[in-house]
Each structure stands twice: as C-alpha cells, then as structure tokens.
C-alpha cells in the first residue's frame, strides 16, 4: 500500500519572494507552520508582508497578528514604499489585528482563543504571528509553550492554513536550538552581517519538512521591490544536461580562428588575460559582433557602460549598435560595488534565459573576485557558473586584467580558476626594436590542437588583426624582446592537447 492511498500529497503555493521558492524546492506547503528568526533589522517583517500581499492578490484571506511590535499605522507607512504594497487589499483580503491585549489578559490560552476566533471569522489561508518571542516569554514552562504551538498546528491542519511565526530570538550566529524548533515544519533564519565595512544579508533554511531544499547560506537584497533571494550556485544539483554539440563558434578574427582550429568549442569557457589597454575588451566585442538571431550575444560588463562599449566598438568598425537594435546582442552594465557573487550570478543567468543567449562576453573577471566575501569560494562559484552556462549551450569569453604592464614574470589573477577553463589566451605589450607592439599567444586550448606561436595583435580603425610572429626575437613575453644570438636555434613545440603530448617540433 502506498502512502497516496490513505493520505493526499501536501499542496504547495508560491511565496511571491523571488528566489525563495527555488531555495525551498518548489514553494511553501499549505498548512505548514514555519518559524522565521532574525535579529532586529534583518528583514523579517518585510519577508512576511511580501508573502502576505502575494497571497492576498490571489483573493485568499490573510490574517496578520501583532504582539509586541510596531503599531499597525507605522507598519503600513513603512510598507508603502514597497512595490508589492497595495492598500486596496486591506482589510478585505489582508487584516491586521493586535493580539497583545489577549496575551496580557489571558496568557497563551487567551492568545490561542483569539487566533481560533479570528481564523474562523476571516477564513484565512495564511496567518502571521509577529512578535512570537513575546508569546514564548509569557509561557511558564517549555511544555506550556510547546502545547501552544501544538494547538496552532491543529488549527493549521483543520483550516488548511499556513502559519508564520516571526521571532527576534535568534542571535548573530543563529542562537541556541529551542525545544519548539523540533515541532514546526520549517525554520528560516535571516541575518545581517558586516564583513570589514561591507554589509551582507543572508538567509538560511535550517529545516524544511516534506521536500528537498538548497542547504547552506544564501544572500538576499532588500530594495523598493522587497526581498530578492539569490540562491548559491554551488548548492544547485550538479546533474544538469549538456546542451552543446561539436560546433565551433568563431571569434571573428580569421587569422586567430585559424590558430585555434576554426573557433571556440560550443559551451567552452575562455579567459583572455592581459594588462590594461592591451585589447581584451576589444577582442570580446569582436566575439559579440559575430552574433546572430541563432547565436544571440550578451555583454555583461562591470566597468564599461553600454554607451561606452558601443562607442569603442564603432571606433574599430564593429556595428554592435545595429545588432542591439535587431535584438541579437544585449548590453548589461552591472555595478561592481556592494554586490555579492550570488547576486551577480543570478542576474547574469536570468538575462541569459530571458534573451536565449549563446555568446557571452563577461568583461571584468576581477570584479567577481572582489565581490566574494569569502575569496576561497571563487573557484567553486566559477565552476558552478560554468556548469550552468554549459547546460544552456552558452560559449563564454572572460576578460581578466594583469597587474603588470611590463614584467619578466606573469602572475595570472586566476587563483585556482585556470584548471576550470577550457581555453586561455594571453595579450601583452612588448618592446621590439624600440617600438611597442601588442602580442597574442594561446596558452591553453583543451582537447584541440593550436598554433603556439607568439604573434602580433593589432587594433586598427578597420578592426582587429593577428599578424606574423617575431622571427629572430626571443624573450618576447618578458615585455622586452631582444635579438637571438647568431647560430642559436629555438625549438617551438606544436602542442596537441587532445593526445596530451608534443606532436612535433620545428626549428627556426
């Protein structure tokens, strides 16, 4: 006998908070009892009211009971700045009631009686008890308090009504486990931390009966639109399908495409590293300029505004503006200030899904590193982001800035990320016979043969070109090349990564 033969499956409903249903694995359960804890200012009241207005908009009744909390007039004044607020739902679909007098006069029994009467009168499908800590302080014993919560669970089951109990009893580190935590269907904790001088809001679902959910800490923002949660990418299931085939996407520079076998493999990730001004962004713009209706492109930039990007592209003959007008390229500027990794990742993936993007140029990998509260998270985040992009069939080019303009050694700003990249290109300035040149070299091209020569990289009014190598010169990548002594030969390996060995060597 299956469980379905004697008990129906629990119904679910949307919370109305972007990102929360993803964390909860599909939404809230009807008739569930949930505790929401957090220090003052963490966002509990906005969290609960955003859900309340969402439920009220579906013409279901909502009851909001307050104990030792701000007055209803002041509460509504503060909520009016939120876009989810709609006064037309009050009081017909959303009713605010004070339960403090009932608690003072009759204790927990008096409060329970009030809940029962209002629940019957309002026929509410959602009840919020704001100031739950005041109820716990009125209990003489833990047993009495647990009996009160048990009675709420009975009301929830009989009336198919969901309860939210808001409490400020949690400390900065979550606080101790209370006996009542074992009784409820879910425990959600909101926190507001400061790392150095930078604040960050976090949410953690510590308990959620009846469903899988994304564990761990996730970040969220509070704006005029309310709360938006950004699920941590690393917590997503790893069994995503691969939406890529054997196709190659050209970079749009024929000589460079020839060096790498025709273009970048579909779904691959490429990092272009080099010092400031060497042409990393320009190379990314050229990649996007090859976009089409079948391969739509997206510029996701941290430092260059859309207007600036279009101006620079036009200066070298790239008509990105026309592609934008056709809807084949989208330009997004994202401020690198006070944003979390998860906010950046969530915004990026939403844009990709919204516009069916297949070519992505993310200009400013260094901004991702700076957005990480925990720097050690960057490789894991980058791997999760790459997995999500590949599952969508997106071919990605990143730009990353080297701190050294001229230096005999190159310290790549990758920090554990380079093994996750399929392709790695290096752009450098080099002095050759008292003239400054740009050079490009392919350092890595996974599962494909490539030309390892160091070639000149030129930016002209007519576009980008990759020229010849530098015969007779050596130490080019140090930034200061010099003539090779006569009679001395250098061995240049032609690398075939697919076989994992040197295919042949040529002397020059």
Could you provide a short overview of the structure?
With 508 residues, the chain is an alpha/beta fold.
Q: What report would you give on this structure?
A:
With 508 residues, the chain is α/β, with parallel strands linked by helices. The protein has two domains: 3-231, P-loop containing nucleotide triphosphate hydrolases (Rossmann fold, 3-Layer(aba) Sandwich), CATH 3.40.50.300; 248-507, 3-Layer(aba) Sandwich (Rossmann fold). Helices cover 28% and strands 29% of the residues. The protein contains 13 helices and 26 strands. Strands 5-4-6-7-3-8-9-10-11 form a nine-stranded mixed β-sheet, sandwiched between helices. A nine-stranded mixed β-sheet has the order 16-15-17-18-14-19-20-21-22, with helices on both faces. Helix 4 (100-122) runs parallel beside helix 6. The longest helix has 23 residues, at 100-122. Residues 490-508 have low confidence and may be disordered.
């Amino acid at each position: 006998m299956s469980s379905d033969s004697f008990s129906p499956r629990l119904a679910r409903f949307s919370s109305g908070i972007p990102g929360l249903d993803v964390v909860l694995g599909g939404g809230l359960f009807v008739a569930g009892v949930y505790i929401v804890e957090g220090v003052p200012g963490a966002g509990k009241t906005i969290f609960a009211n955003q859900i309340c207005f969402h439920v009220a908009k579906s013409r279901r009744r909502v009851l909001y009971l307050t104990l030792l909390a701000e007055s209803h007039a002041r509460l509504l004044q503060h909520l009016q700045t939120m876009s989810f607020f709609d006064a037309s739902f009050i009081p017909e679909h959303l009713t605010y009631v004070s339960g403090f007098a009932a608690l003072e006069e009759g204790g927990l029994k008096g409060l329970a009686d009030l809940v029962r009467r209002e629940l019957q009168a309002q026929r509410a499908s959602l009840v919020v008890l704001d100031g739950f800590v005041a109820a716990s302080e009125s209990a003489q014993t833990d047993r009495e308090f647990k009996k009160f919560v048990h009675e709420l669970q009975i009301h929830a089951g009989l009336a198919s009504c969901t309860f939210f109990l808001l409490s400020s009893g949690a400390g900065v580190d979550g606080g101790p486990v209370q006996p009542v935590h074992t009784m409820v269907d879910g425990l959600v904790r909101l926190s507001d931390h400061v790392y150095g001088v930078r604040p960050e809001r976090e949410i953690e679902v510590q308990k959620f009966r009846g469903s899988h959910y994304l564990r761990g800490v996730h970040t969220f923002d509070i704006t005029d639109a309310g709360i938006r949660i950004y699920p941590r990418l690393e917590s997503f299931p790893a069994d995503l399908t691969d939406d890529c085939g054997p196709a190659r996407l050209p970079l749009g520079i024929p000589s460079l495409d020839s060096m790498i076998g025709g273009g970048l493999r579909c779904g691959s990730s490429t990092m272009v590293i080099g010092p400031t001004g060497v042409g990393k962004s320009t190379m990314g713009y050229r990649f996007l300029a090859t976009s089409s209706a079948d391969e739509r492109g997206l510029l996701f930039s941290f430092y260059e505004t859309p207007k600036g990007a279009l101006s620079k592209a036009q200066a070298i003959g790239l008509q990105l503006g026309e592609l934008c007008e056709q809807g084949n390229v989208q330009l997004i500027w994202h401020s690198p200030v006070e944003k979390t990794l998860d906010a950046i990742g969530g915004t990026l993936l939403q844009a990709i899904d919204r516009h069916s993007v297949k070519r992505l140029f993310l200009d400013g990998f260094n901004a991702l590193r700076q957005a990480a509260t925990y720097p050690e998270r960057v490789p894991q985040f980058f791997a999760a982001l790459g997995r999500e992009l590949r599952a969508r069939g997106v071919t990605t080019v990143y730009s990353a800035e080297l701190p050294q303009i001229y230096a005999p050694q190159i310290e790549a700003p990758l920090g554990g990320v380079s093994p996750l990249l399929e392709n790695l290109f290096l752009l450098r300035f080099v002095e050759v016979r008292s003239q400054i040149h740009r050079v490009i070299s392919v350092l890595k091209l996974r599962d494909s043969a490539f030309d390892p020569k160091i070639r000149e990289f030129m930016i002209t009014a007519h576009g980008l070109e990759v020229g010849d190598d530098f015969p007779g010169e050596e130490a080019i990548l140090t930034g200061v090349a010099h003539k090779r002594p006569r009679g001395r030969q250098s061995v240049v390996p032609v690398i075939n990564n697919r076989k994992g060995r040197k295919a042949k060597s040529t002397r020059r």
